[in-house]
């Protein structure tokens, strides 16, 4: 189901998403409020922030190769924060973070939580969660 202009289901949001704020995008590019402003306009989407949405996901490019165990542990901590929100999806703006977190989710046995790029959500690529 595409959500570009879809109506809300009775009783609340069709999707609950946690939006991660990748630190380099915030710190280096100053992109922080813009994605939230755009995502907040999507009907049927409830945004939740995880406890520490600015914390690194643990990927860091070659860091994850050099320090695999540390990278996985940081990623797993982030996964715990995602699960604590009760969100059906995590919405990210960084491809490396997407790759790492989806990999960690699947390795931990979570095949249900969606990992989506902000652009995917804005383009209406959310499926009906029911």
Verbal overview:
- By secondary structure, the protein is an alpha/beta fold.
- 42% of the residues lie in helices and 13% in strands.
- The chain has helices spanning 23-29, 33-39, 62-66, 68-85, 95-107, 118-122, and strands at 15-19, 45-48, 89-92, 114-117.
- A four-stranded parallel sheet has the order 2-1-3-4.
- Helix 4 (68-85) crosses helix 5 (95-107).
- It is globular and about 40 Å long.
- The chain starts with 14 loop residues before the first strand and ends in an 8-residue tail after the last helix.
- Mean pLDDT is 78; it is low at 1-13.
Q: How big is the Rg?
A: 15 Å
Number of strands: 4
Oligomer: single chain
Helix coverage percent: 40-55%
Please indicate the percent range of residues in DSSP E strands (runs of 2 or more). Answer: 5-15%
Would you list the SSEs in sequence order as H and E?
Answer: EHHEHHEHEH
What is the distance, rounded to the nearest whole angstrom, between the alpha carbons of the first and last residues?
A: 10 Å
Low-confidence stretches: 1-13
What's the overall average pLDDT, rounded?
78
| Strands in their spatial order, largest beta sheet | 2-1-3-4
Tally the helices.
Answer: 6
Which geometry do the CA atoms define?
Answer: globular
Largest sheet: 4 strands, parallel
Structural class: alpha/beta
């Amino acid at each position: 189901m595409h959500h570009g202009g879809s109506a809300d289901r009775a009783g609340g949001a069709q999707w609950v998403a946690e939006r991660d704020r990748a630190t380099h995008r915030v710190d280096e590019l100053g992109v922080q409020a813009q994605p939230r402003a755009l995502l907040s306009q999507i009907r049927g989407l409830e945004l939740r922030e995880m406890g520490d949405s600015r914390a690194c996901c643990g990927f860091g490019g070659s860091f994850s190769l050099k320090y695999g165990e540390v990278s996985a542990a940081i990623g797993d901590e982030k996964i715990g924060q995602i699960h604590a929100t009760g969100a059906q999806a995590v919405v990210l703006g960084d491809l490396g973070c997407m790759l790492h977190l989806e990999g960690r989710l699947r390795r931990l046995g979570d095949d249900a939580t969606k990992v989506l790029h902000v652009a995917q959500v804005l383009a209406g690529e959310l499926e009906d969660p029911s």
